[in-house]
Amino acid sequence: MFSSIRQPILGILMACLLAACAVGPDFRPPAAPGGGDRYTPAPLPAQTAAAPGPAGQAQRFVPGQDIPAQWWSLFQSPALDQLVRGALARSPGLASAQAALRQADENYRALSGRLLYPEVGAQLGASREKNSSLEGAGGVLNLYNASVNVSYALDVFGGNKRQLEGLQALVDYRQYQLEAVYLTLTANLVTTAIREASLRAQLQATGEILDAQQKQLDLIEQQLRFGAIGRATVLVQRNTVAQTRASVPPLEKALALTRHQLSVYAGRLPSEPGMPEFDLASLRLPQDLPVSLPSALVRQRPDIRASEALLQQASAQIGVATAAMYPRFTLTGNVGALATSIPALLHASSSVWGVAAGLAQPIFNGGALRAGRRAAIAAYEGAAADYRATVLGAFQNVADSLRALEADAAALQQQAEVEALASESLALSTQQFKLGAISYLSLLDAQRTYQQARVGLVQAQAARYADSAALFQALGGGWWNRPALQAVSTAAD
Q: Is residue 131 packed enough to be buried (19+ CB in 10 Å), middle (13-18) or exposed (0-12)?
C-alpha cells in the first residue's frame, strides 16, 4: 500500500526543494547616497566662532566621531539628566510605541507558526446510528473514532517566505519607530528645557532693564520737581517704563506654557510638583560636536531605517502577489482508530490512516492576480520614492544644523559685541544726561538700544544650546550605543 502512494509523495517533496528559488525580488538595502564626505557645499571649519561667556565658547567639529547614547549628558546638567531619565520611564508615547512593537512581533510569531510548521490536530468522536441493513441490536450501531490529522502547505514558490519577510519588515519598522519616538522625546525635552532657560534669562534681563528705567524715572521726576525739565520728558519716560513692564506678562506666559509642555513631555501633569527649573547658567555647551560620515547617516537615522523597512515590506508583497499566480501544493494525512466500542479502539485491527496530496492552480480570475501584482509593484515604487524623500530630508536636517551652528556662533560673537557697546553707550549717556550734556531723547535711544541688545544676547546664547541639541537629533542620537529599552510604566508614581 505504501508503494502505491510513495511516488506522488516523493514528487511533491522534490518540488518542495524549489522553495529556495522563491519568486519575487530579493530585497537589498538601497545604497547610501553619494556626495562625498560632507553635507554642505562648503567644507566645515575646524571650529565655530567664539564669544565671551560660557555660551560663547568655540565648538570643534569632529568628523566620524561616534555619538553617545545619552548625548544630553554632554550639557553637564544633573537636572536635565534626571528629567530625561524620568521621562523615559513614564512617557505614554514611548509606552504606545513599545506596545505597537510587541503587537507586530506577536503577529509575526502567530503567522510564522502557521506557515512554517505543519498543522496538527487531534479528534475524538462518537456516533450512534440506525441502519436496517445491519444485523443485531435492531440495526443500531455505535461508532467511536480517535485520530490525529496533519496538514501542510508546501511553500514551493516562496509565497509564505515572502509573507513572513514582509511581516518581519513590519516588526523592524515598529522597532525603528520606537527609536524615533525615543529620539524625538529626548530632543524635545532638551530643547524645551533650553527654551525655559532662555525665557528665564529674558525675564531676568527685562527685570534688570525695568529696574534701571524705574530709577531713571525717579531721577527725572525729581528734576521735574526742581523745574529742570518739562513734564513731557517725564511722560515719555513713564511710557518707556510702561512698555517695558508690558513685555513681562507675555514672557511669563511663554515660560508657564513651556513649563506645562515640559511636564507633559516628562509624563507628568502640569500641576505635579517636583519638576526641575532650568537657566542658562546651569547648562554647558558641548565642546566636541560629532559629525557622522554621510555614508553612515542612513544606518543611524531611525526614520530612514523605518522607511527602509517599509520598502522591504513592499518588496516582499511583490513576491507574495507573484507566488499567488502559481500552483499551490498541500499534503494531508491522518492516523487513528475506528471501532464500535471504546475498548476496541486500542486493537490493531481498528487502525485507520490516510494520506493525500493536492494541487490547486488558478486558471481564470478576471485578471485579479496580475492586477494585484502590478499594484504591489506600484506600492514598491511609491515606498522607494518615500525612502528617497526621507533620506533627502535627513541630509537637509544635518546640513541645516551644521550651518546653524556656524551662523549662530558668529551671530553670538557679534551680538556680544553689540551688547557690550550698548551697555557702555548707555552708561555714558546716563552720566551725560545727569550733567545736562545731552537731551533726554538721546538717553532714551541709548536705553532702547541696550534693551534690545541685552535680550538679543540672551536669545543668541540659547540658540547655540538649541543648535547643539538639533545636531545630535539630526545625526540619530546614538541609539545604537544604548541597550534595549525597558518597558515604560504609564502608572502615576
A: exposed
* Strand duo 288-291 + 328-339: pairing: unpaired
Q: Which residues pair with 153 in a beta bridge?
A: 330
Alpha carbons 178 and 93: distance in angstroms, whole number: 9
Adjacent-strand bridge partners of 146 = 124, 337
Return the ∠ at Cα 327 (arms to 323 and 329), rounded to 5°: 105
CA distances from 129 to 136, 336, 413 (A): 13, 21, 99
Here the cell at position 390 is: 526621507
3-state secondary structure (DSSP) of residue 328: strand
Within a 13 Å sphere around the CA of 47, how many CA atoms are in the beta-carbon half?
11
How many CB atoms neighbour CB 5 within 10 A?
14
In the β-sheet with 140-154, what is the strand arrangement from edge to edge?
119-130, 140-154, 328-339, 351-360
Q: What are phi and psi of 250, to 5 degrees?
A: -60, -35
Domains identified in the chain and CATH numbers: 21-118+157-326+369-481 (1.20.1600.10)
- DSSP string for 262-309: HHHHTT--TT-S------GGG----SEEEE--HHHHHHH-HHHHHHHH
Return the CA Rg of the chain: 37
User: Coil, strand, or helix at residue 38?
Assistant: coil
| pTM of this structure | 0.85
Residues 33-67: pLDDT tens digits?
876 788 999 888 999 999 988 888 999 999 989 99
CA distance 257 to 255: 5
- Separation CA 342–CA 346 (nearest Å): 8
